Amino acid sequence: MSDRGRRPPALLAAALAALVLVLAACTGPSAESASPSGSGGGGSGGELDPDAPLDFAVITHGTEGDAFWSVVKSGAEAAGRDLGVSVTYSSNGDPGAQAKLIDNAVAQGKTGLVVSMANPDALKESIEAAVAAGIPVVTVNSGAARSAEFGAIAHVGQDEKIAGRAAGERLKDAGKRKVLCVIHEAGNSGLNERCDGAREGFGGDVENLQVDISNPTDIEARVRGALQTDPSIDGVLTLSSQVADRAVTAARGAGSEAEIATFDLNTDVVDAILDGRISFAVDQQQYQQGYLPITMLKLYRENGNTLGGGQSVLTGPGFVDESNADLVRPYTERGTR
User: Fold this and answer.
1) Pick from 62, 61, 149, 48: which is nearest to 106 by CA?
2) pLDDT value for 51
3) Cβ–Cβ under 8 Å, residues 312 and 155
4) Which of 41, 78, 252, 259 has the most CB atoms less than 10 A away?
5) How high is the pLDDT of residue 268?
6) Residue 185 neighbours by CB distance under 10 Å
7) Boundaries of domain holding 18
């Protein structure tokens, strides 16, 4: 949480000076080479009319009604309102269908794209075609390792390996001996990175369990079955707020006292943390994954700015536990955390 206290004038002046230096760095040679009136995207694309109205499309791999992606959508739409930019949001969990949404956005003449890449290979041709058409692309949430390769100007999100490692370390510090890592989307490279990172941070036995997020009843049955089959599992790490509640119910049904932790937030997770059913949540602050890319695309189109210096702009990991859950809850209620 930010400090809302009044800063001394000297500190404020120093902060402003530092901001000026950061912005100056962002308009260096890399920004010049990606001038929106010349080559678009990563610097190898075609011409894009610099006077075209700012009309950005956000295209993710989320599913309709998904609590996580609804927050990303809220962030992008809020940025559009704040900045006077047209923003449309669409999503499809099928990689082929998501690629078609990107192709459609290019055909419609969108002047900037925000794309999540759970399955980078399936989106490669579509994203590269957007870049070739002179449309700048910012990738978000997943696919960071392939973002620059495809020609995107930046990536905004959480480093999944780092986040997983931090979660594993917390479970280790809690004295856990064996952890079940629940993967809810097959083929999502970021989720596997989370479990791999947790394995590194935990330094002990971490077992993966594949479930289907679209089948909540089966999720509960599979987690309960794993806990009943192996009573030595004393920690469960879910990778979605929507799976966390099912894991809590499954543990209770199995008669297990395994500690439940999760990635990502919603109000139900915060309430479960406050009443002790979930120990902590890894918060990647996905509202920023919607808001920041719209800001970045506007700055790029209007001032040639880029951010990140070739590295991801990280939105996490942060942690929500019993020490700060009551402070975060109002934000989850309004749909911004």
Assistant:
1) 48
2) 77
3) yes
4) 41
5) 94
6) 21
7) 11-159+286-317
